[in-house]
Automatic annotation (TrEMBL):
Residues 1-23 are annotated as: Disordered. Belongs to the sulfotransferase 1 family. It comes from Urochloa decumbens. Coiled coil: none annotated. GO terms for molecular function: transferase activity. This is Sulfotransferase. Keywords: Transferase. Residues 79-349 form the Sulfotransferase domain. Its EC number is 2.8.2.-. InterPro entries: P-loop_NTPase, Sulfotransferase_dom. SUPFAM superfamilies: P-loop containing nucleoside triphosphate hydrolases.
Amino acid sequence: MSSFTNRASLPQAEEETISETKTNQQAELYQRFANSVSSLPSAEGLSHLPLYRHNQGWQGSRMCIAGAMAADACFAARPSDIVIATLPKSGTTWIKSLLYATVRRREHPPSDAAAGDHPFNSSGPHECVKFLEYQIYTGKKQIKDDDIDELPDPRLFATHVPSVALPASLVASGCKIVYMYRDPKDTMVSLWHFANKLRASEGLEPLPVETAAGLFCDGMAAFGPYWDHVLGYWRAHLARPDQVLFFRYEEVWRDPAAHVRRLAEFVGVPFGAEEEENGVVDAIVRLCSFEHMRGLEVTRSGTTEFAVGAVENSSFFRRGGVGDWASHLSPEAARRIDAITEARFKGSGLNV
């Protein structure tokens, strides 16, 4: 929602009044969207909240769908923006930290972390790169347009919504999108752990892993079905490779330095020869590693505010790595997920 007058010429009191009015309007708009979501079909899913079916075919909680609708109505994207897109539990925290550390490396060198001066020492990755639908356009703690406008270029945002639900201004702007996906079995197991943690906080019974796997296969997970989400961004990448970067979690995990270089090149801040000689790429990889981030005090004891409320930062650092699904899924559940993946990805050029 762009400014509707020349703010530079206004007295401070009038500026504050205009800003407050716009914030209230956004909150009212969000509430109208939330009310409309309540009329959509809903069912229990792989979540601690009921999942509603958006008319575009994806599932989400009342808050996340309302937030996505509010973002579509209010967000004014810039061509210089960079947006991370993922499904939940697909390496979102990691790719957020890698992007932030790469883009902001000149004002916040990774070497600052040792002295406790890097933003990661006081703010988790989800505070540094906020979700449009979960942290910015919510009915609770609105972030004002003015605050968004004043973010330094390139502005960094994140979203979990499928490609069909991206804000119209974002698509039209031609801004950069960085997408990362993960093996569906590991995605499902990580989502199951996270959902049960939230269910426990609400006094709900945990979901058995086989039940969770069935819900996942049926597409009853937030922002799912998984396969629609991945294929949507894959096709966007094929159509506009200069606008949509496509990463596979397992490949980033095997060679993070190479992917950090690709990321930097894609967003227009490639590493120079001097940076390469000084080991800046490797320093970013170490800064953003699971071991380092999990050991930070802000991770161990801090929280991040989302539309659902305050979530412990430690919840985003359960395990990391590849192949944890084998410790939890039955062979039958794994085969079912693999069969769906093979059928849905056949002919697309995608591999898992």
